[in-house]
Each structure stands twice: as C-alpha cells, then as structure tokens.
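A reminder from the course coordinator: this example appears on the midterm review sheet, so study it carefully.

Given structure:
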C-alpha cells in the first residue's frame, strides 16, 4: 500500500511543482520564486512529518535583490529561512480569508489529489497576488530605507535578547519612521520592547521623523510612539 510519505513526495513532484510553474514560478522540489529584475519573490513548501503523515503549508517572502547581494552574496534565498532583510514575509494562512495558519495533508485514497489542488488554488488566488502587490508597493517607493541591513541587525539584537520578533523593515514615510515586523497587538512584551526601541530612535532627534509607527507583516497598524 502506498504510504502518505510516498504520496506526498509524488504529489510535490508530479502535481504541485508543475502547477506552481504554470503560475509563473521557477524552481523545484520545495523552493520557488517569481522572475523579477529587482526583487526575490519567494514561495517555499514547509513540511511537518510524523511516522504516518505529512502536512505542508507555504512560506511567502519578498527580498530586494540589492539587499540580498549586499548581505548574503550567493545563490537564491531559501523561502523557508528568515534572514532579517525581508521587506515582507508571511505564512500563506495570513493572506487567506481565515487569517490564520493553514496546512494541507495528502491522504491515501482515490481523492488524494484534492489537498494539492486546494493548496494550488490558495496560491493562485491569494499568495501570488499578494507577492506581486508587495513587490509593486516596495518598488513604488513607499518610503526611504532608514537603516542598512547591518544597522538593522544591531537593533534586532536587542529584540532577540527579549525574545521579540525582529524588525523586518525600517523606512521613512511622511516624517514618520515605520517599523514592520511579525508582531501582534496582544503581545505585551513586544509592545514594551518596541516602545523602548522607539524612544531610542526619537532621542536621536533626527529631523526626518517625529514619530515611530509599528506595523505587522500585513501592513496593519499596531502602535504609534509617542502614544
């Protein structure tokens, strides 16, 4: 009898990868990207294995090619890795209507391809458009980059010590310093640490900004300092 692991491997090879290429992605196995001159638009297959089952979902991310070359000269980024220089990063569930983590599972039986078809539909209807939108938003100059990747890593060291998600992007927009990261409004620790980070930025008295805003990775408003 064909096992779930064998079906999963076959599904990736014979169905998922060809379907993603049909949507315009390049790549193979578990890492894919969209062709673009200025940005890496990434999609990675993330798996969860047990003895008798395999579940999978997708990581999405956008990285400027100039930032990637400066920080990590080498091959294409791995969509499943976190580098700290992403302009945007999310699990596909975050851009689906449910707004929460979503996983698919290939199960033995006559309808074993249903999960594969459903996951491809999620990429087609939500993941791919969001990647393209994020690229155009970044290319359109939503703001001036405030920190270099190296400077951003120094600030992120403070957040890492407090077990708070790193700042993925810091830019200036309309005399406001906008920080983006994988935070949630309910995270009291992130609020306290980011308030301190904002105070540090504001104490520098940079004339280019008078306030600090924190957004989640979908661009939703979280906090503004001074409050």
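Designed residues:
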């Amino acid at each position: 009898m064909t096992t779930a692991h064998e079906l999963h491997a076959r599904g990736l090879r014979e169905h998922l990868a060809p379907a993603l290429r049909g949507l315009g992605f390049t790549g193979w196995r578990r890492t894919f990207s969209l062709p673009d001159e200025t940005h890496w638009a990434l999609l990675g297959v993330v798996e969860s294995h047990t003895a008798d089952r395999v579940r999978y979902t997708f990581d999405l991310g956008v990285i400027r090619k100039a930032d990637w070359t400066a920080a990590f000269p080498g091959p294409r980024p791995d969509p499943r890795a976190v580098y700290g220089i992403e302009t945007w990063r999310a699990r596909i569930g975050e851009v689906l209507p449910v707004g929460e983590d979503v996983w698919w599972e290939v199960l033995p039986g006559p309808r074993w391809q249903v999960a594969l078809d459903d996951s491809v539909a999620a990429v087609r209807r939500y993941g791919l458009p969001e990647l393209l939108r994020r690229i155009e938003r970044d290319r359109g100059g939503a703001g001036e980059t405030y920190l270099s990747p190296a400077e951003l890593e120094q600030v992120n060291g403070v957040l890492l010590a407090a077990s708070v998600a790193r700042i993925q992007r810091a830019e200036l927009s309309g005399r406001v310093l906008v920080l983006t990261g994988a935070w949630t409004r309910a995270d009291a620790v992130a609020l306290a640490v980011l308030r301190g980070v904002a105070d540090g930025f504001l104490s520098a008295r940079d004339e280019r900004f008078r306030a600090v805003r924190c957004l989640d990775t979908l661009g939703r408003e979280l906090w503004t300092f001074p409050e």
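Residues 114-139 form the longest helix (26 residues). The chain has two domains: 4-139, 144-225.
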